[in-house]
Amino acid sequence: MVKYKRVNLLVDIDEFPEDVIEFISQLCDRMQVIDCVMGTVFTGVQVRKTKRGLHLKFEVAVSENFDEKDTVICQMALGSDYKRELFNWRRVRGGNPPENWNVLYKRKWSRTIDGIIRYTSEEAVTALTQDMEREIMLEYISRKTGEAKGCCKEIIEQLIKEKELAE
């Protein structure tokens, strides 16, 4: 029986999607492929709006042998900024990455008109991002189970247990 651990996949989307429904559909397509290829189960998502795009933080159940390289591949497959993921790949490919190698910046330094440098917030929670979180997980679960959209938490836990018993 395979033991599972939880990891976070951090995804940086450079531009806010014009069609949010299509974005969610394509994202769920990618999540399903990652599940099939990597043996994962997505258990949660946080969506934050940035100045121009989105930050997504996925919680994922993975097998114990899932490593940092797998994290980078999954983040790139989910559509994260390719430059960010190439830099992440360079950090992890040697086998001893720094402790905080995989970060999304919540704040950035910026210069005001009068020349003062300030630390400004980069992420925001909005009603839309909260709706996106819910819709991503409901769509993912309905595709995984073939059932209508319903309650996520119990179904996710059942999916993890089934995967553990099957392997």
Describe this structure in words.
With 167 residues, the protein is α+β, with helices and mostly antiparallel strands. It has one domain (4-100, 119-166). Helix content is 44%, strand content 23%. The chain is globular.
Quick overview:
The protein is an alpha+beta fold and 167 residues long. The protein has helices at residues 20-38, 68-77, 82-92, 127-145, 152-166, and strands spanning 4-13, 41-49, 54-63, 107-111, 117-121.
Helix-strand blueprint:
Blueprint: E1 4-13, H1 20-38, E2 41-49, E3 54-63, H2 68-77, H3 82-92, E4 107-111, E5 117-121, H4 127-145, H5 152-166
Antiparallel strand pairs: 1-3, 2-3, 4-5
Report how far apart the termini are.
Answer: 5 Å
Helical residue percent band: 40-55%
Largest sheet: 3 strands, antiparallel
| Radius of gyration from the alpha-carbon trace, in angstroms | 17 Å
Secondary-structure element order, N to C: EHEEHHEEHH
Which residue ranges are poorly predicted, with pLDDT under 50 across at least 5 consecutive positions? Answer: none
By DSSP (H or I, 4+ residues per run), the number of helices equals 5
Overall, the morphology is: globular
Query: What is the domain tally?
Result: 1
Strand content: 15-25%
Assembly form of the protein: single chain
Rounded mean pLDDT score: 83
Order of strands across the widest beta sheet?
1-3-2
Number of strands: 5
From the helix content, strand content and strand pairing, which structural class follows?
alpha+beta
